[in-house]
Structure prediction request, 451 residues.
Amino acid sequence: MTGSSELLRRLEGRDATLWPDGNVSATRLGWLDSPARMRNEAKDLAAWARSIDADRIVLLGMGGSSLGPEVLRAAAGSDRLVVLDTTDPATVASTPLGNSFFLVSSKSGTTLEVQTLLAYCWERVPDPSRYAAITDPGTPLAALATERGFNRLFENPPDIGGRYSVLSYFGLVPAALVGYEVAELCESALDAERDAAVERGIAMGEAAKEGRDKVTVVVPERFRQFGLWVEQLIAESTGKHGTGCVPVPTTDVEHGPDRHVIGLELTDKSELGDQFLSWEIATAVAGHVLGIDPFDEPNVTESKQNTAKVLEHLPLPDMATDDPSTVTAWLEGHVRPKDYVSVQAYLPYGQDDALGRLRRVLRDGLGGVAVTCGYGPRFLHSTGQLHKGGPDEVVAVQIVPRTPTADVAIPDHPYDFGTLIAAQAIGDHQSLLDHGRRVVRVAVDGLEDIK
Prediction:
């Protein structure tokens, strides 16, 4: 194994041979320069942010466009930013739109969830001065923002992948709007100990090769939302071709023979820039150690394609579900040593504490097995890559509502949000089965139904 200093030199030199032939690193390494570039734009961002007179900022985004901003929001203790990255109709309907400013955030400019959420918001607030877009140059979203005369169009450098984009416009525009000193975040990133980050990545990759592939990231309670971001980064970057690091964010100390434990040293939100860049470097290096491309996501499109197929043949098919009171018994019969359980909740937001309790109950009841939790369809843009492309260690519990959570139409679409999220759950269920994954599907009135 090449030494850490040499690996860092090659990474900073954009050496594509760090990863297998055919990798997409040539168009995905702009995040290395982003802190320095964005530091130079900090004053402009601050001035623009001060010009936005709104009670709330509603961010419409998914995956890399939403999880970084959610970390920044939570760390700042801000209730001004509302991250709307779900198609759950109850959550959509409860989002406050009055006196709000809307950030429409999508690298590709074609993300289905963002398109439908924008259609919903625009019908209710058709005022272009209350919208800004963040996207790559030349996307359909960029064209739409220009056509409608949005307040501002932020065109991000196209050589930054979504999950590596938090220190670009995608993360720093919302940061400025909730009061961060953007220059301070960038300085924190520029001060990151890059050699140490490389060593972390080497250790993650080597541990996974030795069977300790559950990267257990212990985060302080105050920064527990950081787990969402680092989980996506590691899972979507390394979980492919039957290998990968399985991120397990937790506020508890967890141990086991398949665990690689990393304690997160984070005491102040000003340190987030350092953490973001350090984990990006570590993840890119872990990809090198595992012999995979950490910048592509070959399995993410499968569930999207399956969702499209379901929506093309409405009404929705009847889907069998198991009794939620039998989940624990089912897991006991299906979980093998070194497996992990993925709880996938296609439910309204606001149930983080209940999901956390369920995660701990399942973990402890199964003898300390790694358990992760995520809202659908959010995780389809993050850990979903790992579930299908990573090692055959996932045992999935898909949770859907017994009855639709609300009735919310999508303008100019032949289906509503309830139908859309149900189709996404059906599509992902099929994708898991296509990969031979073990999955149980249950319909609940509440998480307390699961036993």
Summary: The first helix runs from residue 4 to 12.
